[in-house]
Write a structure and sequence with these properties.
single chain; alpha/beta; Rossmann fold; binds flavin mononucleotide
């Protein structure tokens, strides 16, 4: 059986809820990654906008004792910030690209109805290899947990 790790960054717990649902469904481990900054509330939102525009994320790390070598596949979840997969997720991919298993999947959450598939796929440039799957999930007015489980059923 494939050993899978679900990684997520989440400012307001939507991506967290999705990744937890997927991890429960497929029997994966789960861990949070962060740059350690408190981005809650209005000022956190403004800080996230600035970080996105300036692309200034340092020191992203995975919480807990996680050894990426133990996993056959990783699903990386992140929200969209300012029309792009969030800079913290991109920083994670860049930092850990050489430690990622052969199968890496991207899952990106967003409020708007337009998907971000082109920009999600472009993160392959940070991963330095083709990702195994990409998923863009609308969180507003959508049963996003159900859609996420359906997606989880398609990954190989
Ligand atoms: C700083 C910031 C910028 C955002 N920009 C967009 C955007 O450009 N397009 C969009 O559809 N949603 C945007 N969103 C909404 C989030 O992507 C969406 O609510 C996401 O599901 C939140 O995930 P989270 O609860 O895990 O943080 C933005 C949210 C934040 C905080």
């Amino acid at each position: 059986m494939m050993k899978t790790l679900c990684l997520y960054y989440s400012r307001t717990n939507t991506t967290k809820d999705i990744m937890e649902a997927i991890a429960n469904h497929i029997g994966a481990d789960i861990a949070e990654y962060t740059d350690g900054k408190d981005r809650s509330g209005f000022f956190g939102y403004i800080g996230a906008c600035f970080a996105s525009v300036n692309n200034t994320i340092n020191n992203v790390y995975i919480k807990g004792e996680i050894d990426l070598d133990e996993y056959d596949r990783v699903i990386i979840g992140m929200p969209v910030w300012v029309e792009c997969p969030c800079v913290i997720g991109k920083a994670l991919i860049k930092k850990y690209c050489d430690k990622m298993p052969s199968k890496v999947y991207f899952l990106v959450t967003h409020m708007g109805k337009n998907d971000y598939m082109t920009k999600i796929k472009a993160m392959d440039n940070l991963l330095l290899k083709p990702s195994s799957g990409q998923f863009s999930i609308k969180t507003k007015d959508n049963d996003y947990i159900k859609e996420s489980i359906e997606y989880a059923n398609t990954i190989d």
